[in-house]
């Protein structure tokens, strides 16, 4: 999927990479919880969902994208692991918040939609609108790829 | 006064305003500053300290004049872009300034002087105050140069009033008097590179201001200097931001990397704010087009707001799909667990080399098929590429029996579960290819699988 715009690069890897990462994360999950009871279904669902997102973030290029970085950081935080780059993140958000303060004059229509988008896209809170849209484009591509992979998996593994 | 100056430009006589000794030193100063790797983006400054050959300045200016073509077109348009070209040329020639000599000295100061006087700016000003008459006179040889010079808003005048860091306050007096009357002579590109180190970071903002001021040539000439100053003090947020973000490094940063050079369009507002806004809007619309191609069904929608709504809905739907699929996966997960182990362990069985050999594919297929249930029976028959008749045979037996019969074989490989990490990507990709192939088969059977997501959507 080569992006037509040379300045804005929104290439995502092939399906295989996504599938590989997702399967790996699933197998890790399986290793951790070998005997899942149906009572914990919600727990399992959440785990799988999280595994899907994390694997997607990794497949899409780890730290090279803002949203993937934010996603991984969020995942790490949820696991109560030490968040390594918290300080950097705080710095960035401070800068961006000052930018935003100055940019109150921007087109309000676009800005309110951008605000909603920021809530959806991970890491969106620290981005300006133009950067946000770049990240959204990449995020959409990765999400659709991940959905395809999961669909294939479900189709392949589900009984008729 | 200004008319005088301009006339003098052609006349190559000494303008009355010029005070030679300090100005020459000033002019030559920039050369020395230049060679000291000054950051030109920080603006023109007056260098009055050192004195070098006046001809240095002359040569630089004449080199500018000699290469009028890129600048000419720009000058007439009053655009910033040409300036950059000029400036880059000059910057490029920085190191060779001494070599450029050979230009006649002591003439044509006037054109320079007309810059000089307004440019007697204190350090924050990017204006090079060239108070020397002699060095600039030679430049006046080009009659068009004065005209061009006149066209550009004088960089010094407005911003100088507020800034009085100049070590040469006496220079300010006259320029202040004249600047108010001066039309907007933009910072001449000739002088732009003549910048020295700027002590304050705000000079970088000034630089951008000057560039934008250049485009105001058509605007009325009488502008209150204070107003100009305020304008310029509200420097281009984008550029200033960039320069400020670079913080302490403003002096050493290459300006052309940091700044986004904006060209003011004809007939459009040209203050820094609106230019920045325009650039930003263009950026956003460009990215909106990109997104429009991604999101299906957005071609009919026009307008940013609706487009963005559509995009938001699409992202939400994708996220919901992920959630739904993960739920589905968890429900299949008990089977999946065992299947995963078996499949992945089975992968180890073939050589870790490329598994695209037909035989290996068949092996994978057979293992997968037996594990994954009998619903592949029909599919396999439909897709002879992937499966051969051999594979169908085990499937013809009862599913459970084949399933169980394969268990011990795979149990043997479950020990290798720990070797998951050693999987080559090829192994798993083969599985996925299988899965995709099956998906295609499903598509054949059930129509487009893309309908499924829509079904899911409907359910949700």
UniProtKB/TrEMBL annotation, chain A:
InterPro entries, per database record: bHLH_AtIBH1-like, HLH_DNA-bd_sf, IBH1-like, IBH1_N
Keywords of the record: DNA-binding, Nucleus, Transcription, Transcription regulation
Domain IBH1-like N-terminal: 18-77
Gene Ontology MF term list: protein dimerization activity; transcription cis-regulatory region binding
Signal peptide: none
Metal-binding listed as a keyword: no
Xref: Pfam families: IBH1_N
Top-rank taxon, per record: Eukaryota
One GO location term (cellular component): nucleus
Location in the cell: Nucleus
Single Gene Ontology BP annotation: regulation of DNA-templated transcription
Entry annotated with the keyword Ribosomal protein: no
Protein name, as recorded: Helix-loop-helix DNA-binding domain superfamily
Species for this entry: Arabidopsis thaliana x Arabidopsis arenosa
TrEMBL record, chain B:
Keywords: DNA-binding, Nucleus, Transcription, Transcription regulation
Chief location category: nucleus
GO molecular function: DNA binding; DNA-binding transcription factor activity; protein dimerization activity
Keyword Transcription regulation on entry: yes
Compositionally biased tracts (Polar residues): 158-177, 216-225
Taxonomy, superkingdom: Eukaryota
CDD domains with a match to the protein in the record: bHLH_AtBPE_like
Bias kind Basic and acidic residues: ranges: 227-258
Domain BHLH: residue ranges: 268-318
InterPro entries, per database record: bHLH_dom, bHLH_ZIP_TF
GO cellular component, one term: nucleus
Disordered: annotated span: 1-20, 158-258
One Pfam match: HLH
Location within or outside the cell: Nucleus
Name used for this protein in its record: Myc-type basic helix-loop-helix (BHLH) domain
Organism: Arabidopsis thaliana x Arabidopsis arenosa
């Amino acid at each position: 999927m080569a992006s037509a715009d040379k300045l804005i690069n929104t290439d995502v890897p092939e399906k295989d990479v996504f599938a590989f990462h997702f399967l790996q994360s699933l197998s890790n999950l399986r290793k951790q919880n070998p005997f899942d009871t149906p009572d914990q279904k919600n727990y399992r669902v959440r785990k799988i969902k999280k595994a899907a997102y994390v694997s997607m973030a990794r497949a899409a290029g780890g730290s090279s994208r803002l949203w993937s970085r934010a996603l991984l950081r969020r995942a790490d935080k949820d696991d109560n692991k030490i968040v390594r780059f918290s300080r950097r993140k705080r710095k960035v958000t401070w800068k961006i918040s000052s930018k935003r303060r100055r940019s109150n004059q921007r087109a309000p229509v676009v800005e309110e939609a951008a605000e909603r988008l920021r809530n959806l896209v991970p890491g969106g809170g620290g981005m300006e609108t133009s950067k946000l849209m770049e990240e959204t484009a990449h995020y959409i591509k990765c999400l659709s790829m991940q959905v395809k992979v999961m669909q294939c998996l479900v189709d392949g593994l589900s009984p008729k | 006064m200004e008319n005088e100056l301009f006339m003098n430009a052609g006349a190559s006589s000494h303008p009355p305003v010029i005070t030679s000794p300090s100005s020459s030193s000033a002019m030559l100063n920039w050369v020395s500053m230049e060679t000291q790797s000054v950051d030109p983006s920080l603006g023109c400054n007056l260098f009055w300290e050192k004195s070098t050959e006046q001809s240095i300045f002359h040569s630089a200016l004449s080199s500018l004049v000699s290469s009028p073509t890129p600048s000419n077109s720009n000058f007439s348009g009053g655009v910033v872009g040409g300036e950059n070209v000029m400036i880059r040329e000059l910057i490029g020639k920085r190191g060779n300034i001494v070599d450029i000599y050979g230009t006649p000295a002591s003439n044509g100061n006037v054109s320079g002087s007309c810059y000089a006087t307004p440019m007697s700016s204190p350090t924050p000003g990017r204006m090079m105050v060239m108070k020397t008459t002699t060095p600039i006179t030679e430049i006046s040889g080009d009659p068009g140069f004065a005209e061009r010079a006149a066209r550009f808003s004088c960089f010094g005048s407005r911003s100088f009033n507020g800034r009085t860091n100049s070590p040469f306050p006496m220079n300010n007096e006259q320029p202040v008097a004249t600047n108010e009357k001066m039309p907007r002579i933009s910072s001449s590109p000739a002088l732009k590179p003549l910048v020295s180190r700027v002590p304050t970071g705000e000079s970088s903002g000034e630089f951008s201001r000057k560039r934008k001021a250049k485009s105001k040539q058509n605007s009325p000439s009488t502008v209150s200097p204070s107003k100009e100053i305020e304008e310029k003090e509200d420097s281009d947020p984008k550029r200033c931001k960039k320069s400020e973000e670079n913080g302490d490094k403003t002096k050493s940063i290459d300006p052309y990397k940091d700044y986004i050079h904006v060209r003011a369009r004809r007939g459009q507002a040209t203050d820094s704010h609106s230019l920045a806004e325009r650039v930003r809007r263009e950026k956003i619309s460009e990215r909106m087009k990109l997104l429009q191609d991604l999101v299906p069904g957005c071609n009919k929608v026009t307008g940013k707001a609706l487009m963005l709504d559509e995009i938001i809905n699409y992202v939400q739907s994708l996220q919901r799909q992920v959630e739904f699929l993960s739920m589905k996966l968890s429900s299949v997960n008990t089977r999946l667990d065992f299947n995963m182990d078996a499949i992945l362990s089975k992968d180890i069985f073939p050589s870790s080399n490329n598994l695209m050999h037909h035989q290996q594919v068949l092996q994978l297929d057979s293992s997968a098929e037996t594990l994954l249930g009998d619903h592949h029976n029909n599919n396999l028959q439909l897709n002879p590429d992937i499966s051969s008749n051999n594979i169908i045979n085990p499937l013809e037996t009862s599913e459970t029996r084949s399933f169980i019969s394969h268990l011990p074989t795979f149990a043997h490989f479950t020990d290798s579960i720990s070797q998951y990490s050693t999987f080559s990507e090829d192994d798993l990709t083969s599985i996925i290819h299988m899965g995709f192939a099956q998906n295609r088969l499903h598509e054949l059977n059930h129509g487009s699988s893309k309908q499924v997501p829509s079904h899911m959507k409907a359910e949700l």
